[in-house]
From TrEMBL, chain A:
4Fe-4S ferredoxin-type domain boundaries: 291-312
Source organism, top-level taxon: Bacteria
SUPFAM superfamilies (UniProt xref): 4Fe-4S ferredoxins, NagB/RpiA/CoA transferase-like
Protein name: Lactate utilization protein B
Keyword Nuclease: no
Gene3D superfamilies listed in its UniProt record: Alpha-helical ferredoxin, NagB/RpiA/CoA transferase-like
Phylogenetic classification of the source organism: Bacteria, Pseudomonadati, Bacteroidota, Flavobacteriia, Flavobacteriales
UniProt organism field: Flavivirga aquimarina
Length: 455, 207
């Protein structure tokens, strides 16, 4: 189903959509505040972007260096060309150790590879231990956001879910109570697990170490209790030197949630005595994206989620409407590279307002890449979706909401919902003025002009 | 030749490692320079201790400044009067009731009420404290304990993470981490709840 249709489904519950929209915008504001308190914030973003550009231009050498150093530290390194191979490797490590129970911390890569169903089909229990991920796992849903996996769920829904699966008492969705029950439930799982799987936030070429960041402590509870730790990483997670972590860790949590840093930034270099550590390096389409001049920079992404939080379409259509592992603006430039036809409506799920590019800590030109994909899709994909899509999506998502009157009901509302070029250049000192790519669609142009006249 | 899902042409005999590296080599752009980090851009003349304390509070922890290390145990007693199972790796504290070694089964630490760990230094910009495996023998300790106390010297506070990475550049690399505040989550309707899977409180004693 095309994004617009999916978005329409999400929009049927108006109060929930409004809450979703507001909650994410709040996170976006926290990000602004956190960034503006850092001296040299823009320089940090420039550095991060330039370091990532260097990484991609020298990726083969960094990968080899990383492997060499990790092996020296007694870590096993595996390579997977695609999702299938990744799953097989993970399963073979688990089989070797006769593992029956696995705890997993957040990893978008293992979502991308559909590792859970694969292991479950092989008789292994996999428990997601990040609270948000556990919630969506119990609900048999994919995460709807890469940092806030259960942002689409109300606390009342979580309450019902926990009553069913964790035998909790009805609490009207008391977050404190529900979290403490989840803590007990997952504590049991940590204590009984034979192996722990984690993602990787950064892999350092010159030390062979990996860094995993969490707020909950779930990655560490898993890895330090189990005998086997498997860390799964996309090949673009490499950074050249350990000191570059200084740049990326300063940016990551601030961009993601407005926190100064995540509670735990764990540096794994050697396995603990008596335990094994494995790292699986995964391609799964990344080398292909690397070959595309216009879209290569999408591999800079450090998965902070800021582009989702700021996107007017994402906020009002929800992560599930994208039908991809990575939703939102970044997902919409990664996914067409994986399956152009299936994901052809996604680059149209944008107003091209550029807010995503403005907040991206590694300065990916997201909205420009969205525009580039549109050009390719219009040429290559023959289907009605292209013709109809452009305004339909913005229309469905934005105009559908009663709140979203084009003439605006109040200045405060407009400030919240208007695309960036109306807000950032004048009112928000944070946003930087930037040339927009030309919006080809007449309706959009017309609408923009009308807006200006009415101001 | 078989074409894999990712679109890499792979020789049947070639390992995935080699075919991935070959594809990267063919597909990567021309070498771009690795930028230098100019620390002057990030330099600030601020009171490190004050900033650190503020940051610790912002990340949900609490900081206590002690005049002398001999006040440590009294302070801990006042804060955690009911703690029974206590591990201390700080030599100035006699408060420990459970001793651990490299051979301790990490699962046995499940019942620990309080861990007192020597931190190496604090970071003013974000309230994080660096601790390394050498400071606590069993890796799971700072996470599995109900409450956590980290002790650092007030002279051991650096401005930002760039300086922090300089301080740990020569360490023996096994396992180490920055801890900033207690474990927390906001996964239920964005409501902040302190105490997810790790320690439910964090106190930094600055001596
Ligand atoms: S594209 Fe940029 S803003 Fe979006 S998740 Fe990735 S790093 Fe964050």
């Amino acid at each position: 189903m095309a994004h617009a249709k999916e978005a329409e489904i999400f929009n049927r519950d108006e109060s929930k959509v409004n809450w979703h929209d507001k909650a994410l915008w709040f996170v976006r504001n926290k990000r602004d505040k956190a960034g503006s308190n850092v001296k040299g914030w823009e320089e940090l973003r420039n550095l991060a972007s330039a370091i990532k550009a260097n990484v991609l231009s020298n990726l083969d050498n960094y990968l080899v260096q990383f492997e060499e150093n990790a092996k020296k530290n007694g870590v096993h390194v595996h390579w997977a060309a695609n999702a299938e191979e990744h799953n097989k490797i993970v399963h073979s490590i688990l089989s070797k150790h006769k593992v029956e129970k696995v705890v997993k911390s957040k990893s978008m890569l293992t979502e991308e590879c559909h590792l859970n169903p694969y292991l479950e089909a092989n008789g292994i229990e996999v428990v997601d231990t990040d609270l948000g991920e556990r919630i969506v796992q119990l609900a048999k849903e994919p995460p709807s956001h890469i940092v806030l996996p259960a942002i689409h769920k109300t606390k009342e829904e979580v309450d019902v879910l926990f009553q069913e699966h964790l035998n909790t008492k009805p609490s009207n969705g008391d977050p404190q109570y529900l979290t403490s029950e989840a803590r007990k439930h997952l504590r049991e799982k940590f204590l009984k697990a034979d192996a722990a799987i984690t993602g990787v936030n950064f892999a350092v070429a010159d030390t062979g170490g990996v860094v995993v960041c969490t707020n909950e402590g779930n990655a560490d509870m898993g890895t330090h209790l189990a005998k086997v730790h498997i860390a799964c990483m996309g090949m673009e997670k490499i950074i050249p030197q350990e000191k570059h972590l200084g740049v990326f860790l300063r940016l990551l949590a601030r961009s993601a949630t407005g926190q100064l840093i995540t509670t735990y930034s764990s540096h794994f270099n050697k396995p603990a005595p008596g335990t094994e550590m494995h790292i699986v390096i995964v391609d799964n389409g990344r080398t292909k994206q690397l070959s595309r001049d216009d879209f290569r920079a999408s591999l800079h992404c450090i998965r902070c989620g800021a582009c989702m939080n700021t996107c007017p379409i994402y906020r009002r259509s929800g992560g599930h409407s994208y039908k991809t592992t990575i939703p939102g603006p970044i997902g919409s430039i990664l996914s067409p590279g994986i399956d152009l036809k299936k994901n052809s409506s996604l680059p149209f799920a944008s107003t091209l307002c550029g807010s995503c590019s403005d907040v991206c800590p590694v300065k990916i030109n997201i909205h420009e890449q969205l525009y580039q994909w549109r050009q390719i899709i219009t040429k290559e994909v023959k289907q009605p979706v292209v013709k109809k899509s452009v305004l339909k999506i913005t229309g469905r998502v934005l105009a559908n909401s009663k709140m979203y009157g084009f003439m605006g009901k109040s200045a405060r509302f407009m400030l919240k919902h208007m695309p960036r070029f109306m807000i950032y250049s004048k009112l928000n000192a944070w946003g930087k003025a930037r040339e927009l790519p030309k919006v080809k669609d007449g309706n959009f142009d017309e609408w923009y002009k009308k807006r200006q006249k009415n101001e | 030749m078989v074409i894999l899902m990712s679109g890499i042409k792979k020789d049947k005999k070639m390992s995935s490692r080699d075919s991935i590296l070959k594809a990267v080599k063919n597909n990567k752009p021309e070498l771009l320079p690795l930028p230098e980090i100019d620390l002057d851009v990030f330099n600030e003349d601020i009171n490190l201790l004050e900033t650190f304390i503020k940051s610790v509070e912002l990340v949900g922890g609490r900081a206590k400044v002690l005049n002398s290390i001999s006040d440590l145990d009294n302070e801990i007693k006042a804060l955690y009067p009911n703690a029974k199972q206590i591990v201390s790796s700080v030599k100035e504290s006699d408060f420990g009731t459970v001793s651990i070694s490299k051979d301790t089964d990490p699962h046995s630490l499940e019942t620990i009420d309080l861990a007192i760990i020597q931190g190496e230094f604090g970071v003013a910009e974000n309230g994080a404290v660096w601790i390394s495996e050498n400071d606590f023998s069993i890796r799971v300790l700072p996470f599995i304990t109900n409450d956590l106390i980290l002790v650092i010297s007030k002279d051991a506070i650096c401005l930002h993470l760039h300086d922090a990475y300089k301080l740990i550049s020569k360490r023996e690399r096994t396992f180490g981490l920055f801890v900033a505040g207690p474990s927390k989550t906001a996964d239920i309707e964005q409501c902040l709840v302190i105490g997810a899977h790790g320690a439910v409180s964090l106190t930094v004693m600055v001596v």
